[in-house]
Amino acid sequence: MNNENPKKIVLAYSGGLDTSVILPWLKERYPGVKLIAFAAELGQGDELKGIEDKARKSGADEVVVMDLRQEFAEKYCWPMLRAHAIYEQDYLLGTSIARPLIAAKQVEVAHQTGADAVGHGATGKGNDQVRFELTYMALDPKLKIIAPWKDTKFELRDRESAVEYAAKHNIPIPVSKKKIYSQDRNLWHISHEGAEIEHPDAEPNWEACLTMVVPPERAPNEAEIVSVDFEGGNPIAVNGKKMAAHEIIAELNKIGGKHGVGVTVLAENRLVGMKSRGVYETPGGTILYEAHKALEQICIERDTLHFKQVIALRYAELVYNGQWFHPLRESLQAFVDHTNATVTGTAKVRLYKGRAMQVGAKSPHTLYDPQLASFSMEGYDVTAARGFIDLFGLPMKVASQAKKW
């Protein structure tokens, strides 16, 4: 990669604070550069409303908006769901799983428009810089990577100075110095960072930050049972109604959000080394993970399921670290998909006051035998258990005998 100034940059543009101030700054930094603002519709709600006009007023020469909701659900969220990947026990990877898709489409747009560079507004402290740049490198290492927050000439070193810069350049932004949460929203989740959330001893201001989910104390006083149908590990219907993948997530977000489901507070270990604290809302994803778990429990053989749980931890790390296009993630996916070939059926999840709990599952491929599971000994050779235990416990018995008491 040479050190010449870029001629045309495809910038990942959200319309938020960081990318809003970066557009005019790039014009100042690289005189004559052409800027393409790339916005991905991933289910942000109204956040993309008027985004083309805003981007052009901020300095964009071209604006590309792609509706990626279905692709996001089918090719990113569903494979991750089949893996049952969860980072550090709580995080369902909502931001992590979206970045590789956005970056991949940036590369695609760069190829279509003849751009020689791609860029993002992620800071030099966070995980997103890694997720964007690893994807760029994996898909086209020849493209220049523009990351203003790591540019020594970038004078906007905190969110307060960015707010002031936006005001100076008449750029409308969705934050102020009083409300300074950093939020990322897509179909799968919304995250909140900043302000009191940064202090691990402080309870988050729920009324100020919660967007998709109501606080549990304001959820209905009656439980609701929701059913999810799966085929080969992929959700295909909610309450018996077949829907497109992105519609399933949206529907479950509404249902789960109403019951206060899917909120977690996590002090996580960032890839770059420090700990950070965030509030995550993932109502639909929480229901889907619970439903998927219920079917895996009855459809996957014991040793295979246990090993799958082990690799789910590594899979989650790969997603969190932005290594979606890594050969290891792709190889693990092959194993995951093989195990999920029989994960077909219906699971029922009970929602009540912030809790989602699987309460039933059925499948044509179930390995659950009620006769074997019952207390009845009919048809079961109890004498086989005696020899099994003798042999299974033999190493422990020998080790005990060898001890010098």
Individual helix count: 14
How many E strands?
A: 14
Strand content: 15-25%
Low-confidence stretches are: none
Q: Give the strand line-up of the largest sheet.
A: 3-2-1-4-5
Number of domains: 3
Helix content: 40-55%
What is the name of the CATH class of the largest domain?
A: Alpha Beta
What is the fold named in CATH at topology level of the largest domain? Argininosuccinate synthetase, chain A, domain 2
Q: Can you identify the CATH superfamily of the largest domain?
A: Argininosuccinate synthetase, chain A, domain 2
- Overall 3D form: elongated
CATH architecture of the largest domain: Alpha-Beta Complex
Calculate Rg over CA atoms.
25 Å
Task: Encode the helix/strand succession as letters.
Answer: EHEHEHHEHEHEEHEEEHEEHHHEEHHH
Largest sheet: 5 strands, parallel
What average pLDDT do the residues reach?
94
How far apart are the first and last residues' alpha carbons, in Å? Answer: 68 Å
Structural class category? alpha/beta
Report on the architecture of this protein.
- It is a single chain.
- Helices cover 42% and strands 19% of the residues.
- The protein has 405 residues and is α/β, with parallel strands linked by helices.
- The strands form 3 sheets. A 5-stranded parallel β-sheet has the order 3-2-1-4-5, with helices on both faces. A 5-stranded antiparallel β-sheet has the order 10-9-8-13-14, covered by helices on one side. A 4-stranded antiparallel β-sheet has the order 6-7-12-11, with no helix packed on it.
- Helix 3 (69-83) crosses helix 8, helix 4 (94-113) packs across helix 5 and helix 8 crosses helix 9 (283-299).
- The model has no long low-confidence stretch (mean pLDDT 94).
